[in-house]
Amino acid sequence: MDIMNYGVKNIVKNIILLTSSLEDGGAQKVVSVLSRLFNNNDYNVYVLVFDGQDIEYNYEGTLIDLEIPARNNPVIKFINVIKRIRKVKKFKKRYNVDTSISFLSGPNLVNLLSKKNDKVILSIRNFLNQSHSIYGSVNKFLIRHIYKKADYIVSVSKEIEKDLENNFAIPGDKLLTIYNPYDVEHIVSKTKDPLNATEKKYFSEHTLITMGRLHKQKGHWHLIKAFSKVIEAIPDAKLLILGRGELEDYLSNLINNFNLNDSVHLLGFQSNPHKYLSNAQLYVFPSLYEGFPNALNEAMACKLPVISADCPSGPKEILAPSKSLEEKTTDIDYAEYGVLVPELDGKFHEYSSPLTKEEDMLANAIITMLKDTAMREKYSELSFKRVNDFNFEVIMKQWEAII
Fold this sequence. Notes:
By secondary structure, the chain is α/β, with parallel strands linked by helices.
């Protein structure tokens, strides 16, 4: 596709939202939401993606597919970065782009190195110190030495902002936190879609649910292990996991080893997860690290009471905003807007090994919540109250202040 064949409207500002794709993912979902927020009479929005073959999120504005998808070969990966920089730089110059906002490490690098006269804003979505791969090490080096050239670096949580300043030497005047925006009204409307007969069979009167990529970061195996204790106390309990990813076979084997095939269901990616969420009794979030978790907030928009691991970062800021970031959860904490449990260790223990102390606390918190209807109703109301602090109007004003 020739990216030079698009006209420009005669409006105030030209904005690029740059990301890898619009496939399943938290950052991609935020790009989708921001494209709708910015697509008004004040802005001309271009959504630039490296690979536009599979689009799972709606967007507004003009989609530009750079047609340079990800590759595993390190040499091709490097060549692709150069190609992307050249294409994006050409686009910025041709259309006199005012502001370029990028999401995820690859797009952030391309955005910075293609800078023309545009204001460059980088969005940091995850707690960066948790990445230990070789590419993670390279990314950390680039953050320390290149990211400070951006006009702004927007973190999605205050804990990430603190991490960037303290561990990556990013100047404080370039840093700010803008939480992810949520279209609560739209989410609520999606909860009204009915379940079909097959889907209804997955639910009981004690159903807990979680969603996210089947990736180590999300810690699903800890929840499955904890659930093996839950079902001893509540035999009709069900666990539904929405998402897909490389750990699917491992999780399936774990479910089988625990003889939980009738109680735990991997339901894959769902285009409308909200109808599933709204029919469950409890949302559980066992992530090892996050940024500002969309899945947790969407569950709260569905009026679900929530239990979350106190991982870095996001859950504490959402569920216990009055607490210090340095204060770690060491026991079950029935906090202001939900329940926090200690951070999980992220180790792949044998299924036959006893539950860790943290898994045991997670199981106990689930059992308590599933058995206590009044507590669930209380936290259901608090969930919905809290997620409205991140509604479109509030978050849009914060973005407009810097673009």
